Amino acid sequence: HPGCSPALQAARGYARPVTRRRKDIPSQLDDLPPTMLKKDYANLPVMNSVDDVVRRLLSLEMASQKEKMKIKTQQLVEKVRRSPGDNGSFELALFFTVAVLTAKIRMFEEHLQRHPKDKNNRRRMLMAVDKRKKLLGYLRRVRYDTFENTCKQLGIQYSLPPPYTRRITKRWLVKKAFCIKVFQEAQKLKAAERLKQRRERQARARAAQ
């Protein structure tokens, strides 16, 4: 408006919303082709003769994130599966849990890159990381070669937990010595009480005879 005052023009410019360009954050679902069918319709023989519009509606192009996550999780399980017919082994059950947790953790990481102040999902991600670390630690103790293959196929970098260290101070030594002394005195009292009860039982047994 040419008839507006400079102050009004400045105010209008100040009130204009700022359009921020969002960064393109890479997702683990980017490698899924949009023409791939959903999990429930992939193996149906009738899908070879359906119309292109119907096929497009049943493809990943129109799928939700939940349906895409199912396919991604299945792909991660197939990476660590030993044979196609292996459906009931203990390793596969453990692999499936680790694969599901890995897919969830990556989904949470992508979400937190866009919303870094979401504390609720950050807490869920940390809980999933701790659970996966426990499962991988167990697998590392039981079958190390399988553990290495799982980390390699899923792209997981496993780090050993740091050894427990505690700074030894004079106060901590005094407290430890006091706790040991209290424990020993309690054990002596319990032993005296047990000896007293045993003698009473023996005395009652003699009196009964």
Automatic annotation (TrEMBL):
Gene: Mrps15
Region described as Disordered: spans on this chain: 1-32
GO CC list: mitochondrial small ribosomal subunit
Organismal lineage: Eukaryota, Metazoa, Chordata, Craniata, Vertebrata
Gene source species: Piprites chloris
Transit peptide found in the keyword field: yes
InterPro entries recorded: Ribosomal_uS15 (IPR000589), Ribosomal_uS15_bac-type (IPR005290), uS15_NS1_RNA-bd_sf (IPR009068), uS15_ribosomal (IPR052137)
Annotated compartments: Mitochondrion
HAMAP family: Ribosomal_uS15_B (MF_01343_B)
Protein name per Swiss-Prot or TrEMBL: Small ribosomal subunit protein uS15m
Keywords linked to the UniProt accession: Mitochondrion, Ribonucleoprotein, Ribosomal protein, Transit peptide
Molecular-function annotations in GO: RNA binding; structural constituent of ribosome
Family under the similarity heading: Belongs to the universal ribosomal protein uS15 family.
UniProt key word Ribosomal protein: yes
Swiss-Prot/TrEMBL GO biological process terms: mitochondrial translation
Record CDD domains: Ribosomal_S15p_S13e
